[in-house]
Specification:
Length: about 800
């Protein structure tokens, strides 16, 4: 108890250094805790799954088109040889119905619906609020708490009837969201047995025996072979716990609303930033603590002469650090609580309090004081008492250690600042580079809510009415229906030229309106407008594809596909395949960026036919008429479906969404580089405060001997500027290496450039100089007579 009292009394006597130390550590801990909570939430995705190590999901890869699949499905073929049936304990089939239409009474709702087997709840645990969590009957349904409240308000939804795909489903239970983040984001579960044929490929979750090794299976299955339709297919088997990190699925337009995927690279970046910030905080803490420990060096020397043992010395240092750590941690959590809303927006994730917060706080309370006490204890335990009594404030070794800690802090700070400047510049490059197609005043709206699994009897009439209303709107330039956009919906097809040189390239099945709609420039030929029936398709290539296949002129260009590009039923009922014979290329369009800019220009093929169909309406609007058209489309929805749900996205927003991860990375580096600068400047302020005050007598003597203000500024600045300059010199190659490693696979990227390093150097120099200048100016203005007299 007496030791605790002495520790608290000493901290209160050194108020300036205590406050500086607490602020630096609190900022560091707050940032580190925020990042570690986010990382923990990402690493515990689907923690509600039951035995995820033995849940496997097959990924079907048909000529580069990757999506979840099922080993046994009609019309696709069977590949069950990879996992014997006796090794599969149970399965759960799953059909994704994204943004589908559900009707209650006279109102329609757009919902993410999963059609699953009754075994779904053998794979995942969801908190059951009311009713039962079972899908045994074909018309059973489970709804989430959020959507139950939206549709029924405070009424009990159990037993209520909804219309889905023309069938009635009865709500049997209401489930809440689990505490962990989930890959699946559904609003309602329906029974897989609701429909005899879902008219789409479905996925299957398999619980396998412990001895089944997906990696060993992938060595055999992950090789292309022909299926029963002649397409090249291969399989990859992924553990459910790894499915969240599957890169091939992360931007798939068929799953972007109902499934969410993670990015390991981004998580590595956050982990690195968290460790660097914690290291900056700890180094700053030890450095400042050692500064005000120097005031007690004589005290420790005298105590050691009178028999101070190792344990009491360690306990005194540890308790002081423990008190500082407790107060800093409480301050950090106060900062986290007060900034929770902007931080959630910044991280694009709502993170609730959990048991991990207590575990993290307890870990810091146990380990942080121990780590920060080791160096001071070793230093004062092994220094002879005579040296301590002489005062080690001017000891060369002590000064070197303090400068080494400060140097390390500034290396990290400069590194984070350079990275933030580069990724900010890179983001600006991504957002402002022309895409090669029109993006302004184009929106995608879901006006038709009846899918083709079981279309309603009035579907055609509704389609015609929507068409009429769109044609009547004076503010709409052009519109078309398609599930394929400039950014998504392409397939990967193997195309061959007349010399059988083959290349797997993105291929879009579109109408001729597509090129006019997006203002794609035609370089040669003409876009075909007339077609002889549904089996008549023409092919168009972009400039990059022409170069890939070795064509310089349109008249020489003939290509075909390795497998059928289209299959149609003729009038006599026969199935006719097309695209496998050489076809003349009808036109060449200019290149554009079909996805993320860093992927570069890709060779592309366009299979052009009659106007297609789809639930999505792509609408080109006259400039400055966006609000009027949105209101008009809402009225259409109200008239056709009596619903307030109106889902639409602007193409400019979709383009920006491509760079959401880049934007977040740039923001993370910028914000935490700023925090690192603040922490380092606090450390610089504390060190210089002690160091300059220790040199007051030297300054006074120099002034008596004629030293001017310029001489004093140079004397006091020199040491710190050298440290900062050397730290920056080391940060430059480190940052260049990290930038190179991060961007080495980018086709297009912004060059590093000397300007980034110059801006970083000027920024750090100005802020650090501003931190020092007040104290140096104050020291230079001292009265030599008073100082020498007091000495």
């Amino acid at each position: 108890m007496k030791t605790l009292k002495y520790a608290w009394r000493f901290l209160m006597r050194s108020k300036s250094y205590t406050v500086i130390n607490l602020l630096g550590l609190a900022f560091s801990l707050a940032c580190c805790i925020i990042l570690m909570r986010y990382i923990h939430r990402e690493l515990t995705v689907d923690a509600h799954s039951i035995d995820p190590e033995h849940i496997i999901i097959p990924l079907r890869d048909i000529e580069g088109n990757i999506f979840p699949g099922n080993l046994q499905q009609d019309g696709v073929g069977t590949d069950s040889v990879y996992i014997p049936e006796d090794h599969v304990m149970e399965q759960c089939r799953m059909v994704v119905q994204q943004q589908d239409n559900v009707v209650h009474g006279n109102s329609s709702y757009s919902m993410n619906v999963l059609a699953v087997d009754s075994t779904f709840f053998h794979f995942f645990r969801y908190p059951l609020l009311t009713g039962t969590a079972s899908l045994n009957a074909p018309d059973d349904a489970i709804i989430t708490r959020h959507y139950a409240h939206r549709i029924f308000g405070k009424e009990n939804p159990v037993g209520k009837v909804l219309k889905f795909n023309g069938k009635s489903v009865i709500i049997r239970g209401v489930v809440d969201e689990p505490e962990c983040k989930t890959l699946l984001r559904f609003d309602m579960l329906v029974s897989f047995k609701l429909m005899d044929n879902w008219r789409r490929l479905y996925a299957s979750l398999m619980r396998v025996l412990p001895g089944v090794d997906p990696d060993a299976i992938n060595m055999v299955s992950n090789v292309y072979h022909k299926d029963n339709r002649g397409s090249m297919i291969r399989w990859k088997f992924v553990n459910w716990k790894d499915f969240y990190w599957e890169k091939s699925m992360s931007h798939h337009h068929n799953y972007d609303s109902i499934m969410q995927f993670g990015n390991r690279t981004y998580l590595y970046i956050l982990s690195g930033v968290a460790m660097l910030l914690l290291l900056v905080g700890i180094l700053n803490f030890i450095n400042i603590y050692m500064v005000f420990m120097m005031k007690r060096s004589k005290e420790y020397g005298v105590k050691k002469v009178f028999g101070l043992q190792r344990l009491p010395l360690f306990l005194q240092i540890w308790i002081e650090n423990q008190l500082l750590a407790v107060i800093a941690l409480l301050t950090a959590w106060l900062l986290i609580e007060t900034t929770q809303i902007p931080v959630n927006r910044f991280m694009n994730e709502t993170i609730e309090y959990s048991a991990f917060d207590w575990q993290l706080s307890l870990g810091f309370l146990l380990l942080l004081p121990l780590v920060t006490s080791i160096y001071p204890y070793i230093k004062y335990n092994y220094i002879p008492p005579i040296i301590s009594i002489r005062s080690i404030a001017t000891n060369r070794h002590s000064i070197t250690v303090r400068m080494a800690f400060l140097f390390t802090q500034y290396v990290i700070t400069a590194l984070l600042l350079i990275l933030s400047l580069y990724f900010g510049k890179h983001l600006d490059f991504l957002l402002n580079t022309p895409t090669g197609y029109r993006t302004e005043c184009i929106l995608k709206a879901q006006l038709l809510h009846e899918n083709q699994v079981n279309p309603g009897p009035n579907r055609v009439a509704r389609q015609l009415r929507i068409k009429q209303l769109l044609n009547e709107c004076p503010h709409i330039d052009l519109w078309m229906t398609s599930n394929i956009t400039i950014l998504g919906g392409n397939s990967i097809c193997t195309i061959l030229n007349d010399k059988d040189v083959q290349q797997s390239i993105p291929t879009l099945f579109i109408s001729s309106t597509f090129f006019q709609f997006y203002d794609l420039k035609v370089l040669e030929g003409e876009i075909p407008e007339k077609f002889d029936g549904w089996a008549d398709y023409k092919i168009v290539l972009n400039k990059a594809a022409m170069k890939t296949f070795g064509y310089n002129q349109l008249k020489d260009a003939f290509v075909r596909s390795e497998t059928p590009l289209w299959v149609v039923r003729t009038q006599d009922g026969q199935m006719e395949e097309g695209g496998t014979k050489l076809m003349p290329v009808m036109a060449v369009i200019d290149n554009y960026y079909p996805g993320h800019l860093t992927e570069g220009i890709k060779p592309m093929a366009f299979i052009v036919g009659r106007a297609g169909y789809g639930d999505n309406y792509l609408i080109s609007i006259k400039p400055s008429k966006e609000k009027e058209v949105i209101e008009y489309l809402k009225k259409i929805e109200k008239e056709i479906y009596n619903t307030e749900d109106f889902n639409y996205t602007w193409l400019t927003d979709e383009v920006h969404k491509l760079y959401a991860q880049d934007r977040q990375t740039a923001n993370v580096y910028f914000v935490f580089a700023l925090i690192a600068i603040i922490i380092s400047c606090l450390g610089l302020f504390g060190l210089s405060l002690f160091d300059i005050r220790q040199r007051y007598r030297e300054i006074a003597i120099r002034k008596v001997n004629g030293a001017g203000m310029k001489d004093l500024y140079s004397l006091l600045f020199r040491k710190y500027i050298k440290v900062i300059g050397c730290a920056f010199a080391l940060a430059v190659p480190l940052s260049y290496y990290l930038i190179y490693m991060y961007t080495r696979d980018f086709v297009l990227k912004v060059p590093v450039g000397a300007g980034i390093y110059l801006v970083a150097l000027v920024t750090i120099s100005l802020i650090s100089s501003g931190t020092l200048i007040w104290q140096i100016h104050k020291a230079a203005q001292i009265d030599p007579a008073k100082i020498i007299k007091s000495e």
